[in-house]
Amino acid sequence: MPINSFDHYPLSWKPDKTKLTVPYYKSLSRDLEEKIRSGKLKAGTKLPPQREIADYLDLNYTTITRVYDRCRKKGLIYGVTGKGTFVAAHPTEDVTIAVPDADPDTIEMGSVNGFSEYSLPVEEATKTVIQRGYLRSLYEYSYPLGHPHQLAAGARWIEQFRAHSDPSHMAICAGAQNALTVALLSLFSPGDKIAVDPYTYSNFIELARMFHLVLVPIAGDKDGMLPEALEKSCHLHGLKGIYLIPTCANPTTLTLSETRRKELASVISRQHLLLIEDDISTWLFAASGRPVLPSLHDLLQGQSIYICGMTKSLCPGLRIAFMSFPPEYKTAISHGIANINIKTSSLDAEIISELILNGSAYVIARKKAEWAEQTSRLFARFFPGFDTDPGYYRWLPIGPDHPFRKTEQDLMERGIHVYHSERFAVTHEEGENYLRISLCSAGNRYRFERGLQILRAYITENN
Amino acid sequence: MPINSFDHYPLSWKPDKTKLTVPYYKSLSRDLEEKIRSGKLKAGTKLPPQREIADYLDLNYTTITRVYDRCRKKGLIYGVTGKGTFVAAHPTEDVTIAVPDADPDTIEMGSVNGFSEYSLPVEEATKTVIQRGYLRSLYEYSYPLGHPHQLAAGARWIEQFRAHSDPSHMAICAGAQNALTVALLSLFSPGDKIAVDPYTYSNFIELARMFHLVLVPIAGDKDGMLPEALEKSCHLHGLKGIYLIPTCANPTTLTLSETRRKELASVISRQHLLLIEDDISTWLFAASGRPVLPSLHDLLQGQSIYICGMTKSLCPGLRIAFMSFPPEYKTAISHGIANINIKTSSLDAEIISELILNGSAYVIARKKAEWAEQTSRLFARFFPGFDTDPGYYRWLPIGPDHPFRKTEQDLMERGIHVYHSERFAVTHEEGENYLRISLCSAGNRYRFERGLQILRAYITENN
DNA sequence: CAATTTGTATCTACACATTTT
DNA sequence: GAAAATGTGTAGATACAAATT
């Protein structure tokens, strides 16, 4: 029997007692899910304590625990012991960063496509591959993880990034996103917990959610994730893995310092975490002659899946990523690849290998790195204080009162497409908002410059 | 306190009381998993009833339920109410049908590669695509579900198979297996139950297991799955979806009759199941001028994902499949594709489209269908009683006493590679065993004929 | 065909850790 | 720094459905 009537309580979620059906936990979690998905409960809303709902509905409170649990595993809500339960950052909204269909009137500064102008060497390489008569042998099943000489090309390529590997424990996937899918599917199970930065690659967030993996954000400072916070969270949550973008993280552009890398490696090793290292940007450092810090893959020697996508550095249309893993995961990953892809297109892989082996890949990368530097200098002219470190995007603070949808829409109406920080947030964060500004998708310098003008005008106006 | 000492009971699984640690359910399920994976508990073994283990260990029996539950969701065991709990068919063994690395001394009659000899038109089409200057536009992000004209080509292609669709609710995936991954990931959640034939495509079994989906085998007769059995199972298990290969099912080669298709469609519609229709073989019927039965996709008008892989009919090396779905799933599937692949290689898709649009695809398919018919006639000469219906494989009964590994190994030693029925079994089945014999991978007619001789000799010897 | 065996689903009880007050 | 609030993890009790005897 309820102790109170609760009529005057402002329960943010107040399920309708009359609509309760057995089993209770299912009818309740359906109701909660519906309210969140329909937007009746907004991101960041604090839900009533489990015991309060239980009291109100006259149910045992672990039944409510079960309701919250189900929604938590779906990524709709998250709980903090002692604090309460909250609606997740973007429980349902479409934050997937897909490929926008080209609209000539909007300047693309949201998605990070990579410069696509420079595709001549790629076309040349394609012709070479075909003329060489490889086609016949490529159009057959074999080597599901990639042909040995393609993997060798991959090993050579990632060497530049201080990630050392060997074709015998590498694989080719259909792009970095696909490699992440393979890694998550092969090595994790629903309910497993993975440490991430508080802001991280939004497609990873969605992917993890699709697999019903639970993401646990770990605090960081200007050098990236804090090792102590990670270690503490291990004890607290029983983490299974960790996802890191050590160099020029997406979207925050933070790079882990060498000390930080070593400290994190030591925690990862001590706590037996499984690291997924997503290396999207080191090529920009290597190609522009900047110092390259050691990969965690090298520092750890095991427990680590290293992924290097070729899309951004070489050619957006060819979907190839190289993956390196410790030998003990080879069976699991082979299974994952067999089940997800059977195998990756040999043609794409062969073209990429050709580009690496004939040296064009290095030339293309250098060219793209130059462009990136030019656009980042341009960006810094508009927004002083930003350095011109390599990177395909910038992380622009815009103050606290700029809600997700509205800000993006306002800017869209002014003619630029950008992404708001909430797309990248693992939990709903109050306070500062940011925009991620892509430096490489506007099409040309003039469009990009116009975009920056629009952006600066909007920011000065609204602050 | 245990009532009995159990020392004389032959408990097939008898956990060591002294090694029990808290939490009990974890330490126990770890132990059970280890025993199964290490082979100490073999496929089909009946485990002790939950209450018996609980009694023996002096624990509440729902704790054992939890242990069994965890292992069940991992696909290690399965339970039948009233009967007991059993170790699953191939709980851990590597049954994934991957791509075997070529060994010239072994005749390949296991994996179904598709004839790869006839790749000249594919090479021509590749050159055409490149010369046409498409390359530049292909090497860019756009149209994550596939270019409209590629999808239109797909729509035209599947029309032959009485599957009608429209480019606006179609997508291109990187092969049929990849399409299955997209469908499962986008539309199902861990724990969801999917109806399947008792023997079905082994990679689907593994894929479902990776996603922690539970497969429920449904009885069938010579016309395929029984509608009444399906309907009954809906009520019993609360099925969410169903996976069917309506034409020349893999591996049983059964084709659903037209009446059966209509009856199943009616159950699927009435029970709100989500159908995944994997069409791997209708092209063989179309290409050899045989009658084509209506697809369930057409019969259902909704609730159905239709998948048509191009690998077998056209070219093993190009990884393309067309998928058609009801409009209401477009968002979910777009998300799935964005998260798994970002997008499929445009180059492969473009080559396939070119082949369809310039008519070569039809010619290639006819050629391959002819070869398939020739090899199936050859097969029927060796094994009378088999008809020469289209199909890339045959399902050969070999009697009850031919265990999985041993049979495959025996035949491997004699020089042929084949797959045993246990690879395709959803639950462990006693009784008749089968071999799936691939008709299209031996390399040439002479090798295939030698393979059949070896096979027949083995069978007559051992029965 | 009724009683028994057996698996599955749901709800309840309790212990514990962290955060806030 | 103790008490209260709050989420999470584990174990137990009960009801029920299907298959077997």
Give a structural overview:
Two copies of one chain form a homodimer. Chain A is of the alpha/beta class and 463 residues long. Chain A folds into three domains: 3-87, Arc Repressor Mutant, subunit A; 107-117 and 362-461, Aspartate Aminotransferase, domain 1, CATH 3.90.1150; 120-361, Type I PLP-dependent aspartate aminotransferase-like (Major domain) (Aspartate Aminotransferase, domain 2, 3-Layer(aba) Sandwich), CATH 3.40.640. Chain A is 42% helix and 14% strand. Chain A has 17 helices and 17 strands. In chain A, the strands form five sheets. A seven-stranded mixed beta sheet of chain A has the order 5-13-12-11-10-6-7, with helices on both faces. In chain A, helix 9 (227-237) runs parallel beside helix 10 (258-270). Chain A is globular, with a radius of gyration of 24 Å. At the A-B interface, helix 4, helix 5, helix 7, helix 8 and helix 13 of A face helix 4, helix 5, helix 7, helix 8 and helix 13 of B. The first copy, chain A, binds a DNA duplex (21 and 21 nucleotides) through residues 22-26, 49-51, 59-63, 65-66, 68-69, 79-85, 236.
Outline the secondary-structure elements:
Two copies of one chain form a homodimer.
Chain A: H1 24-37, E1 46-47, H2 50-57, H3 61-73, E2 77-80, E3 84-87, E4 107-108, H4 120-131, H5 134-138, H6 148-159, E5 170-173, H7 176-187, E6 193-196, H8 202-210, E7 214-217, E8 220-221, E9 224-225, H9 227-237, E10 241-244, H10 258-270, E11 274-279, H11 282-287, H12 296-300, E12 304-309, E13 321-324, H13 330-340, H14 346-357, H15 360-382, E14 393-399, H16 404-413, E15 416-417, E16 419-420, E17 433-438, H17 445-461
Parallel strand pairs in A: 4-15, 6-7, 6-10, 10-11, 11-12
Antiparallel strand pairs in A: 1-3, 2-3, 5-13, 8-9, 12-13, 14-17, 16-17
Chain A binds a DNA duplex (21 and 21 nucleotides) through helix 1 and helix 3.
